[in-house]
Write a structure and sequence with these properties.
By secondary structure, the protein is an alpha/beta fold. The protein has 2 domains: about 240 residues, Periplasmic binding protein-like II (D-Maltodextrin-Binding Protein, domain 2, 3-Layer(aba) Sandwich), CATH 3.40.190; about 200 residues, D-Maltodextrin-Binding Protein, domain 2, CATH 3.40.190.10. It is about 40% helix and about 10% strand. Strand 2, helix 1 and strand 3 form a beta-alpha-beta unit. Helix 12 packs across helix 19 and helix 19 runs antiparallel to helix 20. The radius of gyration is 22 Å and the shape is globular.
């Protein structure tokens, strides 16, 4: 039986399934210097190398093990697949994956990626910006019009949008839908509003942030924090339909500017526990506990904002005695958080392109019971720990999305429309850095360390100094 030959250069797996997540309150790293990327070190020779399949070797680059694990399942299930898969996995901690991938794409040759992946934070670098010439249009890859396949699968529009190049050609698709929800504790909703019904709770916390702040005040009156930290709201608000940079000029649009008001009220009216995402108290709030080193009062937290992966790989495992006492509803404003897009290298080995096409089609557009989308949605892959939302609404509509964690609620009832309303029109090549900088200066304003204007001036100066982008 063939196997995948894996090179793990730098792998951080504490939250490996979590696409596009991180602590938005920590000091951000500067964007990757594309021109000074350090080449990935050469792998040590395999002491007992597996002979290549008759079709040749397909080089796959990824930043988590999700895609490699999926491809291993495909190979195990399709023994006649004539290719060997050579996988390189590099964590994107501090931009290491991007730097190594850029170097490998530019270097070309037999070791160059044939398939590579990118997450939300930097996918448009490879579909719409500097490295987009390396992403082969799916229509050329598959040898047939691709839009009918996409439409038949019901792929969420924001996933298509992020994977479309400036010429209007689809060059990448995600397998995961990361349209998001408000994930809340049923018992606390009952205490505040006398109901835990998702439709009723959704009507209390939205639509819109004014209604959310009204709900926050109602929760606070009951001794409940509506969110763990005000930065949780930033995850949704930062997802503007407008890009940060327009015509080489930094633009703070009304939606992102509104965070200075929304976050200020959340922080200074004690509507949250003032935690940092991915910090110890942020996790403790999921199970209703207090960390010993936490300063200030800590109250029960009503909910979190995020996609299916936040439920399955973060909250559920940290929920303790609150497990099974949760539900989801529509968030105050639609947004997507995370995701992994898969591309074919336009300069990859042409001799293995048929195999590349087979794998990418199986990952992104195969809606049958043996396609990756169905297996992933229904927790049918070997070692799978949870069901998950997928790019194909067609697959989710015929899948069972009920979760014990949600007291039997079908999560797909919320995540299918969440995918429909997600948007990627505002995604840009420097989002991760700019988002983190804006949030950091906003936090200093909330805490009274800067005035509003000082925070905005500091933010603009940081972008000018680091990226050379003026206002």
């Amino acid at each position: 039986m063939k196997k995948i030959l894996c090179l793990f250069l730098v792998v951080v797996l504490v939250l490996a399934p979590l696409a596009g997540c991180g602590n938005n309150n920590e000091t951000p790293e500067a964007p990757v210097d594309q021109g000074a990327a350090t080449p990935a070190p050469a792998p040590d020779p395999d002491p007992d190398p597996e002979p290549a399949g008759d079709g040749g070797v397909i080089n796959v680059w990824a930043f988590t093990t999700e895609i490699p694990d999926a491809l291993q399942h495909f190979i195990d299930s399709n023994p006649d697949f004539p290719y060997t898969i050579n996988v390189t996995v590099i964590s994107d901690q501090d931009g290491e994956y991007e730097a190594a991938l850029n170097t490998a794409l530019l270097a070309g040759g037999s070791a160059a990626p044939d398939i590579f992946t990118a997450e939300q934070a930097f996918v448009v670098n490879y579909t719409q910006h500097e490295f987009s010439s390396f992403a082969l249009p799916y229509e050329e890859l598959f040898g047939e019009p691709v839009q009918p396949l996409v439409d038949a699968a019901g792929v969420a529009a924001f996933i298509q949008e992020a994977g479309t190049n400036p010429a209007g050609e689809l060059v990448g698709l995600g397998f995961q839908s990361t349209g998001s929800a408000f994930i809340y504790r049923r018992d606390l909703a009952e205490q505040i509003w006398g109901t835990d019904d998702p439709d009723a709770v959704g009507g209390h916390i939205g639509p819109g942030w004014n209604r959310f702040l009204e709900a926050a005040a109602q929760a606070e009156a009951e001794g409940i924090a509506i969110l763990s930290g005000e930065g949780d709201a930033w995850q949704a608000i930062r997802q503007s339909p407008n890009p940060w940079v327009v015509n080489d000029t930094l633009v703070i649009d009304d939606q992102r500017m509104s965070y200075l008001d929304i976050g200020y009220q959340l922080f200074n009216n004690n509507f949250t526990n003032k935690t940092n995402a991915w910090g110890s108290q942020w996790f403790a709030d999921m199970r209703g506990e207090v960390e010993e080193d936490t300063e200030g009062p800590v109250r029960p937290v009503l909910g979190y904002l995020g996609p299916a992966w936040l439920i399955n790989y973060v909250i559920a495992g940290n929920s303790g005695d609150t497990f099974g006492n949760w539900a989801i509803t529509t968030p105050p404003t639609p947004f997507a958080w995370g995701g992994t897009w898969t591309m074919a290298n336009a300069n990859g080995n042409p001799d293995v392109r048929d195999g590349v096409a087979t794998l990418i089609r199986w990952l992104t557009l195969d809606t049958t019971d043996t396609g990756f989308q169905f297996l992933f949605a229904n927790q049918l892959l070997p070692g799978a720990s949870a069901k998950d939302a997928v790019a194909s609404s067609v697959v989710m509509e015929r899948s069972d999305g009920t979760l014990d964690f949600l007291a039997g609620q079908d999560m797909f009832d919320i995540f299918i429309p969440a995918g429909v309303h997600g948007r990627a029109s505002g995604w840009g090549p420097y989002d991760r850095f700019i988002d983190d900088q804006f949030n950091n200066f906003a936090e200093q304003y909330f805490m009274g360390e800067m005035t509003r204007e000082e925070a905005l001036d500091g933010f603009r100066q940081a972008i000018q100094d680091t990226l050379g982008i003026g206002s």
